[in-house]
Design goal:
Elements (H helix, E strand, L loop, with lengths): L1 E7 L2 H13 L4 E7 L10 H10 L13
Parallel strand pairs: 1-2
Length: 67
């Protein structure tokens, strides 16, 4: 399964990711780390692509509002 993880670049996220990685070793992971919390003026292209695919009629799951 393909799994995307959005996390902050801080100690708590590092600990959480280190606990998750062994459990997800059989999956394909994509990790996005944020250096700051808050709204960016421009979203990374990968998130814009994710928003596009998540809003397509073929998509059977709901996605959060990405901006």
């Amino acid at each position: 399964m393909k799994i995307t993880i959005l996390a902050n670049r801080d100690l708590a996220s590092c600990i959480a990711l280190n606990r998750l990685f062994p459990l997800l070793k059989d999956h394909e992971l994509c990790i996005f780390l944020s250096a700051k919390v808050g709204k960016y003026d421009r979203l990374p292209q990968a998130l814009l692509d994710l928003k596009f695919y998540g809003s397509s009629p073929e998509c059977k799951f709901s996605t959060p509002n990405l901006g």
